[in-house]
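Try this one yourself first.
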């Protein structure tokens, strides 16, 4: 990280505040799914997967739910949908799936992430994000939101969970 990139971004949530948001989301997930024996947390590769890992850790601590973790990998930067790959095979039929990502902006990434789950019968699919920017272009909403943030289209929100020394939410 260069000095200029550190100066040009403003911290919105500290590491502690981000952790509190994740824990609160875990409690909400448990409240909405307490009758389930288990759920699947599907994290989108990158900070979304780091968020999913933290959710699974919190759920394991606060509830008897068997929270299984999978990573969704696909190219978020192409305009057409690329294949969505799981990091390992897991039976998702008749399960509760929670797709986790760091930021909900237009909804395109989360819409792409739904693709493999629409091919099998499921109990329900929910979405959890740390930050919702509310610039939705796709009919996607988050069931669990850590922080709603009004931004301009030119601003960039960065969630850092994978580097402990920089953990938090930043606005560039």
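Now uncover the answer:
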């Amino acid at each position: 990280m260069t000095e200029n990139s550190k100066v040009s971004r403003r911290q919105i949530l500290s590491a502690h505040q981000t952790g509190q948001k994740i824990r609160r989301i875990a409690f909400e997930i448990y409240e909405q799914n307490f009758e389930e024996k288990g759920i699947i947390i599907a994290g989108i590769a990158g900070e979304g997967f780091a968020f999913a890992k933290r959710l699974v850790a919190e759920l394991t601590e606060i509830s008897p739910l068997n929270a299984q973790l999978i990573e969704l990998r696909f190219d978020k930067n192409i305009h057409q949908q690329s294949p969505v790959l799981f990091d390992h095979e897991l039976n998702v039929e008749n399960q509760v799936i929670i797709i986790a990502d760091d930021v909900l902006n237009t909804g395109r990434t989360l819409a792409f992430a739904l693709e493999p789950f629409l091919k099998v019968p499921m109990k329900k699919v929910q979405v959890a994000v740390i930050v919702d920017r509310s610039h939705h272009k796709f009919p996607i909403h988050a069931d669990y939101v850590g922080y709603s943030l009004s931004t301009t289209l030119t601003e960039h929100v960065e969630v850092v969970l994978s580097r402990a020394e920089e953990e938090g939410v930043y606005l560039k």
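Discussion: The first strand starts at residue 10 and ends at 13. The helical segments are 3-7, 15-33, 47-62, 108-114.
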